[in-house]
Amino acid sequence: MKNLPYRGLYTHLEITEETEMADYDFERLSVLIVEDSLFIRSLLINSLRILGVGKVFAVEDGGEAINFLKQVKEDPMKVGTQEVDIVMSNWQMSPVDGMILLRWARRHKESPDRFIPFIMITGFSEPKRVQEARDMGVTEFLAKPFTIQAIGNKLISIIERQRQFVHTRSYFGPDRRRRQADIDFEDRRVLTDKSPGVEIVRG
């Protein structure tokens, strides 16, 4: 995907060598953007188009996203896609914010895909906030302000490092352990598929 033409609306989205995702073709990806700011929403749309994402849809808050995802399942011809591969959602929105949307996607019986990769876009960096989203089943974080390179890296991370899902009484979502630690003893602090009450779910 080298030498992509610049098609954005904002001059500060110019492509540099760092933004080239040479070995990846995102043409078959379908991404839903959930963002209440028109300016940020436009930046995200154009960034994804520059990266070559085939289908980009955008709504203004979590409530609209829920309705859109339901329609994808019930009437895909109406919304123009048979599936959404990735959700990119702002955290702080009104009336339905990103955390409510994430909770619905992971836990609600009407969610069409509880395994859907979910990127939370946020300016929050406090450990408590990060842990809250992880506990709700977020897949990746995208920090504001973001770059095209950062967005591309998140897409690649989702594609290349797909994590198994864990289902317990209090949690459903991607395995929160990024990698196995190099330890010589049994780590009793982490959940495994042999832990009581834990089911490893592979989507």
From TrEMBL:
Coiled coil: none annotated. Residues 30-159 form the Response regulatory domain. The keyword Transmembrane helix does not apply. GO terms for biological process: phosphorelay signal transduction system. Keywords: Phosphoprotein. The keyword Phosphoprotein applies. PANTHER family: RESPONSE REGULATORY DOMAIN-CONTAINING PROTEIN, STRESS RESPONSE REGULATOR PROTEIN 1. This is Response regulator. It comes from Iodidimonas gelatinilytica.
